[in-house]
């Protein structure tokens, strides 16, 4: 690996270490080459997200996002030199040469952030699911290009589907966690029909639910949906090699525990950001590296197939 490419990866790993609160726990479990690749993917995705969340006017955000899409085209076409001044582009271009990653999924990420910039809302779960596939399912599918599947893995052709579904589970958990913060920024992600069903159409501007709202019922409804997505997405784990499976088990396991914490105290998401302490995240990562989660999931799936 040339010195400029190595420096580009180091930059991306620094970005990941500083900004990826949950993602970094899983990445640390990967061998160096895959860790570098995942850091490049994260750094590019972080750039896209930061444009969407930044202080620019919507028109300026749109231009910046389309400029980033143009950069992605250059990466796809192999037009990024090793001495390019953009370290994220250099690292991602090298990753694309080393791994069979579907770079088109990053176009979907840009589409999803553009939807945020336009302030789109969602009437139904089917509509929200399209958005979640853009901003999270796409990351699952592109990450699978780095992980690969083990030879002879059962149902390996469904691995992209499971990676996508796991991304949906993580994103729905994020939406529940950030419901008040998003409301303060003028964003509503939960489907309008769900909000109406539980009397929550007025939104979530305060630390208590609107009068007459069944906020707990709404959260538990969405938690059940997220748990079903996790159960389906976790079918990916036995298809991965030990360290890739540990990475996914750690990242998804952190969000799965976060979802449980939200389910135990739904109103907590209105009082502030719900999170896990660092020691609990580290425990989840150790379980992932030991293979405990993957084996437990495999046993549950085998038992489900026997019953079915």
Automatic annotation (TrEMBL):
One of its GO terms (molecular function) is squalene synthase [NAD(P)H] activity. It comes from the Bacteria. One of its GO terms (biological process) is carotenoid biosynthetic process. Pathway: Carotenoid biosynthesis; phytoene biosynthesis. Keywords: Transferase. InterPro entries: Isoprenoid_synthase_dom_sf, SQ_synth_HpnD-like, Squ/phyt_synthse, Squalene/phytoene_synthase_CS, Trans_IPPS_bact-type, Trans_IPPS_HH. The keyword Protease does not apply. PANTHER family: BIFUNCTIONAL LYCOPENE CYCLASE/PHYTOENE SYNTHASE. This is Squalene synthase HpnD. It comes from Streptomyces noursei (Streptomyces albulus).
């Amino acid at each position: 690996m040339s010195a400029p490419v190595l420096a580009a990866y180091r930059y991306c790993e620094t970005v990941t270490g500083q900004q990826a609160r949950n993602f970094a726990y899983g990445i640390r479990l990967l061998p160096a080459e895959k860790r570098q690749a995942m850091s490049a993917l994260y750094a590019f995705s972080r750039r896209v997200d930061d444009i969407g969340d930044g202080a620019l006017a919507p028109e300026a955000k749109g231009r910046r996002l389309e400029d980033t899409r143009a950069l992605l085209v250059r990466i796809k076409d192999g037009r990024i030199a090793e001495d390019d001044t953009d370290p994220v582009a250099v690292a991602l271009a090298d990753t694309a040469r080393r791994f069979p990653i579907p770079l088109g999924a990053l176009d979907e990420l840009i589409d999803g952030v553009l939807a945020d910039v336009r302030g789109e809302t969602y009437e139904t779960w089917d509509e929200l699911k399209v958005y979640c596939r853009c901003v999270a399912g796409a990351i699952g599918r592109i990450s699978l290009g780095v992980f690969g599947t083990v030879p002879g893995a059962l149902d390996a052709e469904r691995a992209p589907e499971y990676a996508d579904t796991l991304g949906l589970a993580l994103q729905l958990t994020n939406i529940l966690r950030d419901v008040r913060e998003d409301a303060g920024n003028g964003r509503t992600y939960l489907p309008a029909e769900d909000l109406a069903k539980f009397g929550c159409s007025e939104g979530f501007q305060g630390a208590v639910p609107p009068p007459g709202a069944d906020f707990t019922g709404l959260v538990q409804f969405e938690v059940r949906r997220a748990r079903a997505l996790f159960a389906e997405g976790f079918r990916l784990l036995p298809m991965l090699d030990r360290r890739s499976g540990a990475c996914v088990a750690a990242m998804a396991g952190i969000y799965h525990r976060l979802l449980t914490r939200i389910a135990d105290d739904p109103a907590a998401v209105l009082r502030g950001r719900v999170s896990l302490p660092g020691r609990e995240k580290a425990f989840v990562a150790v379980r992932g590296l030991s293979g405990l989660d993957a084996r437990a999931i495999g046993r549950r799936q085998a038992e489900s197939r026997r019953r079915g």
